[in-house]
Amino acid sequence: MKTGINLKIKNNIAFLTINRPKHRNALDLKSTDEFLETVRMIDADDKVHVVILTGSGGVFCAGADLSEMAEKGAIYRAWAGADGPLAEPCSKPVIAAVEGHAVAGGLGVALWADMRVASETAIFGVFCRRFGVPMSDGTPTRLPKVIGRSRALDMLLTGRPVRAEEALHIGLADRLAPEGQALEMATNLAKEISTFPPLAMRADRAAAWSAFDSDEATRLINEDEGALLAKKLEAAQGAKRFESGIGRGGN
Fold first, then answer.
1. Do residues 102 and 193 lie in contact, with contact meaning Cβ atoms separated by under 8 Å?
2. How far is CA 173 from the centre of its chain?
3. pTM
4. Does residue 250 have a pLDDT over 60?
5. Which of 24, 67, 77, 149 would staple 62 via disulfide (CB 3.0–4.6 Å)?
């Protein structure tokens, strides 16, 4: 399996895997572009009925690669901003199979999916809070829709970890799997969904996505614009602290 974003299609199911285990599947600029390109390929492939999104090495995704930001001064475009990889839902249902951490931008990646199957090892959280990196990945817009505003603000303001059982309780996770079995459970769910007539299912899905806000695109643009100052004044310094080891492990 090559490093970066991997795609495998089998029996009308696309397996989209983030494979940067040495970086806890954090996305650098190259893999962010690959993610967007791969989703566009899936959108255009009529043979794909359902997508499973996962990470390799027992970790889902740790967000943006802050090491790249610290070392190269990389400026990440907003993942949910114009032309970002998370700006629009995939045209096919997406199930996130979450093992380990889905934190910082990785939480935004998980929220981009329609459903989340979490293993007992799963941990969700806005871990970038302590580094001054804003969540311009759709999380501030989508998280309140999934778990409600009060619980979303709890996560956004405190940056605390939300473990699998709590995630299931508050609706952040839809299924709970034993350790190491999130992908298997997600695959079985995808097989079930893929047997249904796709047009009616996609129509109902599209209506559900737009049920709470028909102008999500504008809200995501506002989210991006609101994060610009923090990116300039806080995120770069936070990335350097992260690279030096300060704040890792919740310190």
1. no
2. 13
3. 0.84
4. no
5. 24
